[in-house]
Amino acid sequence: MKKLPKRTNSKAVGNIAANLLSATLSRFANPVAIPESQDIGIDFYCELLDQQGCPTGQMFNIQCKGTQEVQQEGDNFRITVKVSTANYWLIQPSPTFIIVVDIGKKTCYWAYPRKQLQENTSWQRQKTVSIVVRASDCFGFDIDEMPQQMQAILNANVPEWIYILIEQFDSKRPVVPLDNPEYPGILIHELSNLANTIDIIDRLQRRMAVMTTRFQEETLQVVASLRNKSEALLGQLDYTPGSARLWPPGSNIDISSFEFGAGSSKDVWQRVDQAISAFKNSPTRENHERLLFSLGELIQLNRDIYWTIEEVCDVY
To answer: Domain DUF4365, which positions (predicted)?
Structure first.
C-alpha cells in the first residue's frame, strides 16, 4: 500500500469546530477566517451586525479551540495558551474571546481572557498560562444573536479600543530602514492594517452619528411625555376631593404654583421648556446634560404629585 498523508484526529476536530463556529457566528456577525499559515493566536476577525444585518463597526477577535468533549472541573475548566499568544491578545485594539467548541455536546463555551490576564501578571515569567472558562458561559449552534454578556464586554471595550488606537496613531514611527530588503513587505502590511483601522473608525463615526440622532430624539420624546404626564396628574389632583385642604380656606391659589418637594409645577415646567428649546436649537453636550437634569426634575415632580394624590385620597 502506498504511503499517503493522513489527517490527524486533532486536526479533524479543529477543522470541524472552526466550520461550526464560523456558521454560528455568521448569524450575528461577519467572521473572516485567518489562514492557518498566518494564524498566530487569532482564528477569526469579526464585525458585529445589527438586527437588520448592517455592520456596526464593532470589531472583535475569536480564538477557536475544538474538542470532542470538554473535561470540566466542577463549574469551570481551563485552556492553556502560550504566553506569547496571551501578550498578542493584550495588544489587540479589539477584544479577543476564546471559544471552546464542544462537538459532542454541540455547545460553545466562551471566555474573555483580558481581565484574567490583567489581574495577575505573574504568568509573564512562564511559558504558558491557563485561562479559566466558566461552564455557564455558553451558547448553542442555533443562537441568533451575540450573548448579552459578550455584547456587554464588547460595548464596554469601545473606550479602551479608542484609547489604544490613539496611542498607536500618536506613537512615533521608526525611521524607514531603506537598506532592509524585507522592509517593503513589512511596510505594506503595516499600511494595510492602518487603512483597515481608518475604515473601521470611519464606519464607527457614521454609525455613532445615526445612534446619536436616535438617542437625542428618544430623549426629547421621553421628556415631552413626562411633561404631559405631570399636567395630567396635576389636573387629577385639582379635581380630587379633599385637595382643598392643601391651602387655606377661601384662598384662590393656582395649583400649578403649589410647592412640591421638587418645586412648583410652573417652575419645573418652565425649566423643562427652556431646556427643550435650548437643546433643539443647539444639541450640544452641555444642553443635553441640561435636558437630562430637567428629565430628573420631571420624574421627581410626577412622583410628588402622585404621592400627594394618594395622601389626599386616603385622608379624605
So the answer is: 35-146
Q: Closest Cα partner for 29 from 99, 81, 78?
A: 99
Same domain, 51 and 148: yes
Taking the C-alpha atoms of residue 92 and residue 111, their distance in angstroms, rounded to an integer, is: 16
Q: How far apart are CA 90 and CA 92, in angstroms?
A: 6
Task: State the residue range of the domain holding 273.
Answer: 211-239+254-313
Q: Taking the CA of residue 236 as centre, how many other CA atoms within 13 Å lie in the half-sphere pointing to its CB?
A: 15
Cell numbers representing residue 290 in the block? 441640561
Q: State the sign of the Cα–Cα–Cα–Cα dihedral 171, 34, 147, 218.
A: positive
Q: What is the pTM of this model?
A: 0.52
CA 91, distance to chain mean position in Å, is: 20
Amino acid at 147: P
d(CA 172, CA 253): 70
Q: What is the pLDDT of residues 95-139, one digit of tens each?
A: 899 999 999 889 999 999 998 898 888 888 889 999 999 999 999
DSSP code, position 34:
P
Mark out the alpha helices in the chain (DSSP H runs). Answer: 9-25, 83-90, 113-119, 148-170, 183-238, 265-281, 285-315
